[in-house]
Amino acid sequence: MKATVRFIIELAVLGVGGLLTVMAGIVKSVFELTKEFDGLNRALKLVATSTEIFTQSQAFLRKTAEDFGIDLTQLTKQYTQFYVSAKDKISSTEIQGIFRSISKASASMGLTVQQQERAFLALNQMMSKGTIQAEELRGQLGEALPGAFGIMAKAVGVTEQELSKMMKAGELLASDVLPKFAKQLEKTYGIETLDRIESLVASQQRLTVAWEAYVASLQAGEG
Prior knowledge:
Low-confidence stretches: 19-26
Mean pLDDT: 83
Number of helices: 10
Radius of gyration: 23 Å
Number of strands: 0
Helix content: over 70%
Strand content: under 5%
Largest sheet: none
Shape: globular
């Protein structure tokens, strides 16, 4: 009888200990994620030109992450960097249009986080330089998004040979051609009417996005 009672007590202790371990893990996860979002939101708020744009950008990023099953922290980081490069050259609507098209294409192609980062890095550099260079288009963007060079040629309405000449002459202005490239990318990939990615990877990622969005709302004082 005593052995049975002792066994039951040990099980109860282990159960409480396991629960405490799980709770500690959740608290740590919330704390670390809250710190990350605090830094990301501070950066985004710093570069946004108004509180309205900051709030709208947050809503845009959450919707994009949920629609395409993409990590919200990565999207926020990439969007902030792209916004800095592009905000003085194109409108906020165009910035978000380009960003959403690239995100949609990345998700539909099943690109890795590293490939997505490479694609956005190329866009950032194009905007920063002001003109489209072969290094970013053929190299970084072309490696992440198959056929990027040919898609750019179609977007501009020239042959690939003519596109090469235009790049060498510095005639391809990023602010002019990137919005066109984003639209042509969706046409070429056949995702113009696609508003949501439905795949196993996207579904799994949406669980993470939901958790991230919840923690982000706590960090913003909404929950």
